[in-house]
């Protein structure tokens, strides 16, 4: 009989359940916690560019030359209005998604599951999808953009069955 794993996840936690028999209760097999997601921004980020970082300096990267034009603008260097392409929280979520993907690849290689059901918070589901290994993506039979990480196994099954039976 094929074993299905059900993953309930968000950026801070991923719970893995196993289902071999639809009539039997789900078995929780793993509970991963992303400790970095629980940190305050000041604990996670050591360097912060202040609002006046290197301003009014003809040598600093944030300075301006003639008519308010940053002398480094052509080089694409950041100025005081610089915003990174990815926030620290987004970066930590991506690292956690990669950790989940690696765990799934290893477990599938060991023959521990054949099918996969994903239930994740809407923000994290996209991150998880983009970081899953292609061979694991092929095993997904259902996806739900709901966060059920705080539900017990019985409630999780009930939620997923209700979502599955919901008319589109």
Give the uncertain stretches in residue-range form.
Answer: none
Cross-sheet strand order for the largest sheet: 3-2-1-4-5
| Number of H/I helices | 5
Average pLDDT value? 82
Q: Please describe the biggest sheet, giving its number of strands, its sense, and whether it closes into a barrel.
A: 5 strands, mixed
Order of helices and strands: EEEHHEHHEH
Helix content, binned percent: 25-40%
The CATH architecture of the domain at 4-40 and 87-165 comes to 2-Layer Sandwich
CATH topology assignment of the domain at 4-40 and 87-165: Nucleotidyltransferase, domain 5
Given this structure, which CATH class of the domain at 4-40 and 87-165 is correct?
A: Alpha Beta
Task: Determine the N-to-C terminus distance.
Answer: 30 Å
User: CATH homologous superfamily of the domain at 4-40 and 87-165, by name?
Assistant: eRF1 domain 2
Structural class assignment: alpha/beta
**β-strand number:** 5
- Cα-atom Rg, whole angstroms? 22 Å
How large is the share of residues in beta strands? 15-25%
What is the global morphology? Answer: globular
């Amino acid at each position: 009989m094929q074993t299905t794993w059900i993953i309930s996840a968000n950026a801070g936690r991923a719970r893995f359940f196993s289902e071999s028999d639809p009539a039997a209760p789900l078995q929780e097999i793993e509970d991963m916690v992303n400790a970095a997601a629980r940190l305050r921004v000041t604990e996670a980020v050591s360097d912060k560019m202040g609002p006046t970082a290197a301003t009014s300096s003809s040598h600093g990267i944030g300075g301006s030359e003639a008519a308010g034009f940053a002398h480094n603008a052509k080089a694409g260097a950041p100025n005081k209005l610089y915003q990174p392409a990815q926030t620290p929280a987004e970066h930590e979520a991506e690292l956690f998604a990669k950790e989940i993907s690696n765990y799934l690849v290893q477990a599938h290689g060991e023959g521990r599951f054949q099918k996969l059901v994903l239930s994740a918070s809407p923000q994290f589901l996209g991150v998880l999808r983009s970081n899953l290994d292609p061979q694991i993506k092929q095993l997904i039979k259902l996806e739900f953009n709901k966060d059920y990480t705080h539900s017990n196994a019985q409630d999780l099954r009930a939620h997923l069955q209700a979502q599955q039976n919901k008319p589109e």
